[in-house]
Amino acid sequence: MADLRIFSYLPNPRVWKATIAARFCGVDVEVRGASGKELREWLWDYDARPLEQGERVSLSSFARTGRVGLIGAQLFKTDAFLEAQPFGNVPAAFGPDGRTGIFESNSIMRAVARLGETRFPLYGRDAYEASRIDSFLDVSLVFARDSQIYLLALSAGTIDATIHARAKEAFAIYASGLEQALSPRRDTLVGDCITLADICFAAELALFMNEHARAEQLSARGLDRILHAGIRGEYSRVFAHFDRLVDHTNFRSDLKPYVEKLLSKAAD
């Protein structure tokens, strides 16, 4: 039995925060899920699975209306799922008992680090390092909120200048702080080894790169890409660190194919 089970839409860089962390500290993480559209046909539960023929009727008492990402969709969430996951969102993680729910990707990642803390200090070596890591994770949440609104608007075709400007400012604040944290020549954000701060940063930037796949929507509204051709020059340390992490053994299998696919869209 896995130490932690995660249910989510896939692919999802925010889920990979946990799987990357698991490789560092030897934790067994099981991931279940499918594309966002396919999750409409799944039973949302600890034992999440595709619905069988006719179950949409027999399980109608579990029908709920999606609010984030799958807005307005009919989703089938068990009472046990909502008891463990009170906000009803994915990624949704569970302890082995199936009753203890953990939600929000940074918290799921922290759970992995705590489970494997004796094998690798992903959460720092003392209370001060752990708190500094938390500082980076909290700042990432602020950026992630605006990036999610931006990416969902791009996906839905509802992007406008206001949403774009807010995301652009959020990225500039986030990247500027990271650039400072990595100066003059640091290889990690906290301490002298990779921590949760680095994992979170890599996953959030990889997710934000989905902007590359929506260049036509931006152009049609007279908006420029936030991750424009010269962005690496503006934040050279940030992107050099990102490149190092993507090529790292414990990041590569999750992030590299995803990033390369999005970069190919940017080139097109």
TrEMBL record:
Keyword Ribosomal protein set for record: no
Residues of the GST N-terminal domain: 2-120
GO molecular function list: transferase activity
Residue ranges constituting the GST C-terminal domain according to the UniProt record: 126-268
Keywords assigned: Transferase
Biological process terms in GO annotation: translational elongation
Keyword DNA damage: no
Source organism, top-level taxon: Bacteria
Cellular component per GO, a single term: cytoplasm
InterPro entries, alphabetized: EF-GSTs, Glutathione-S-Trfase_C-like, Glutathione-S-Trfase_C_sf, Glutathione_S-Trfase_N, Thioredoxin-like_sf
Record-linked PANTHER family: ELONGATION FACTOR 1-GAMMA
Name assigned to this protein: Glutathione S-transferase
Native source species: Bradyrhizobium rifense
